[in-house]
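Write out the bound-state structure for guanosine-5'-triphosphate.
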Amino acid sequence: MAANLTIKYYLAEEKYRRAQTSEERLNCLEGMLQVIPKHKGTDHLQAAIRWRIKEARAEVQAERDAPKSGRTFRIPRQGAGTVVVIGAPNSGKSRIIAELTNAQPEVAEYPFTTREPFPAMMSCQDVLIQLVDTPPISQMPIEPYVVNYVRTADLVVLAFDGSSDDAPDDTLNIVQQLEARKTLLDQTTGYAEDDFSKLRVQTLLAATQADDQDAVVRISLFRESMPRDIPVVQVELQSRDSCDSLRDVIYESLGLIRVYTKAPGKAAVYEVPFAIPAGSTVETLAERVHHDFVERLKFAKVWGAGGHDGQQVGRDHVLLEGDMVELHV
Ligand SMILES: Nc1nc2c(ncn2[C@@H]2O[C@H](COP(=O)(O)OP(=O)(O)OP(=O)(O)O)[C@@H](O)[C@H]2O)c(=O)[nH]1
Ligand SMILES: [Mg+2]
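---
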């Protein structure tokens, strides 16, 4: 986290990253400029936002003058995180969704089976995570809406067919196509400093059919040519254990903690958690519970692992896994 920036600013920046249309992006940028602390230390960043606002206005105008061609599929975000599954034809994307959720996307031995994106919910540790299946990315130019999905995802799962000699090159082609669109598959998510067009997105390589005897060699070949190191999970989707590990790795990669809320004076019930990013404060939780709560929040009481037994805390208090929180507004 750069110095001198507030949680409010980071919330605004996160909202911007998740915006799906140029109009939404413009609104979010204006919101970021409003809440960014105005002092010397943020001069550069303020200038970068102003510059991006100018660009975004031009984009909005250009789209009004000549609506963008190409398909768009708006998928509303659902659950505690959105995981976009991308990959080359036949890399096992739909099979991943089929094994980890109750949905039944078409899975087939031939390539180009999936034609449209498809969202489904995965449940892990009482938390629902949205997985989005996508059509394959091949040598054809990647569709703009898929780039948009990748950029707004909380995590990208890059499927890699461990049984195919084409997998290293085909997967590298995807990395490069995204890179040409200023989108870098990487270990963490964040904007390049002072450049709101270049974005790193946290990615996990899921090597399917990993029981194939040459899968490890193919993965190594890919890693050698991949410009950045990303974590790899090897899966054999026929095995229940292997699917369970993939589910766990996806959940853990999202870096969430589960916290519970209760109304003042009511008994604590540990049933439906709020899953929020680790390191989140009471203020972030308040935002999730109700957008009004951030302004109205007076204090909170916390019970949990950090030794808290109903102590009163302020909005900047950092929450821990399993905390029970009473928000007083
Ligand atoms: N045994 C085994 N088969 C797999 C695994 N992953 C994928 N498959 C098979 O590989 C074929 C392709 O899987 P899909 O999930 O349809 O691949 P896809 O990436 O969605 O393909 P497109 O939609 O065409 O891009 C299917 O026959 C799957 O059953 C795996 O880990 N183990
Ligand atoms: Mg598919």
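---
The mean pLDDT is 93.
The chain has ten helices and 13 strands.
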